[in-house]
Design brief:
Protein name: Major facilitator superfamily (MFS) profile domain-containing protein
CATH topology: Growth Hormone, Chain: A
Shape: globular
Strand order of the largest sheet: 1-2
Domain Major facilitator superfamily (MFS) profile: 38-454
Largest sheet: 2 strands, antiparallel
Transmembrane segments: 39-59, 79-99, 106-124, 136-155, 176-196, 202-224, 257-280, 292-315, 327-345, 351-375, 387-409, 429-449
Structural class: mainly alpha
CATH superfamily: MFS general substrate transporter like domains
Region (Disordered): 1-20
Number of domains: 1
CATH class: Mainly Alpha
CATH architecture: Up-down Bundle
Subcellular location: Membrane
Distance between the termini: 38 Å
Number of helices: 19
Helix content: over 70%
Order of helices and strands: HHHHHHHHHHHHHHHHEEHHH
Amino acid sequence: MEDGAESSSEVQTVSSDVPKTPNQELKKLLSFKVYKRRWFVLLVLCLLNCSNATIWLTFAPVADESAKFLNVTLEEINWLSLVYMVVAIPLSFGTTWMLDTLGLRITLILGAWLNMFGGLVRFFGKSEEDQYTIPYAAVMVGQTLGAIAQPLIIFTPTKLAALWFPDHQRATANMIASMSNPLGLLLANIISPLIVRTSTQIPTLLIAYAAPACFICFLATVGIRSSSPPTPPSASAESSGSEPFIQGIKLLLRNKAYLILLLCFGSGVAVFTCFSTLLQQILCVQGYTNDFAGVCGALFIVFGIVGAAVLGLYVDKTKKFTEAIKINMSFTALSCIAFSLVSLLPHQKAAVAAVCSLLGFFGFSIYPVAMELSVECSYPVGEATSAGLVFVSGQVQCVLYILLLQALTKRLADSPLSTCGGEVLSWKVPMLVMAGLLSFFTCCFVIFFHTPYRRLLAEEQATYGTKKTSVSTVSESIPSVEKATC
């Protein structure tokens, strides 16, 4: 269906005492329209997500040179990435409320402006004493603005997919929007080492990331004209976000399957964020250069995007969310164990690169499917609330993991192979602990997670049932379905 179709449409209600004919069923299915404009909204979200990710991970691939330029320690450089997690935690609840209450358009435009100001403040925050230097405080302010924008952007894919895309394209749309964030991480892993050969080139790097943020802000402000299309693309889109925010939180806290997903998948998000943040510092101890660390980060993300594309298309066709995630989480845990071992070996570039590729292929591909599964197992709670809290869980655990891993490092008095620009730390124990944590939560998820697909059941009942089903009716009928399924 295209924009030339009628601007409004209502789902036809068929009386229970009148037998349905094939023509009536066909008419009912065709009553849901989609619009070409959905691809532009998706494009803006992808660009915005990508830009925010590059601002987030600007300094991690060149941590040693960044520490020299800003005259701070590596731990303080890590805080430039860690601030994203710290800021996102308290703001996430407000973001989920904003998405489900004020709508997609206001949320995205606000996120675009904050992201742009974050990129500009980092570059224009010149020191008064020396116009060629940028103080650490100004960079931190810019990072904080970008961190405030992150939940406004990263919580949006499930909401956009539900409001603008039909059921057979939702997982794919969510995958495309979600994977634009690791694409930004990929660009940061490539561009940062490419531009920064010496610490004096840090300002050039900052303007390289600020310029696209300005253009994307213009696109979002001018191009996004509404939060939703004129008519819904699916049965669930008609009632998207209908549960009040507080009531939705209460429903989630009583949902056993959702709480397991919240904890176990949140741990996976935390491990992957730690990996992206600390990769350069882990590899430089064994003599690997920043360029090679950037290549490994790029392979990690490229194979992750490929894996996500394959898995997203597969799940869109089969709707086997749970099986896909359980299998991929198991292979991800094995890949993480392998990385914790090969990262300790010098002169093993092929092995390190291969393990990073496998870790990305199996691990990153889980993210968009897990976001969709969080909506499926918690319906009729709003998409932003259910997916957003999973992300919050990952951020909270990431802060704890990074602090724990840094505390477990040991200073090395002598490391002849090291290419680290500053102090040299041993990451042997932290890597084994990280692999152990991921393996533990993977086992918990595989054993204990079971759920019916509530949104799909509600859509099937609304589309093929004898009458249009209200959200409250679906909500009341779901517990009995869940008991029967379990």
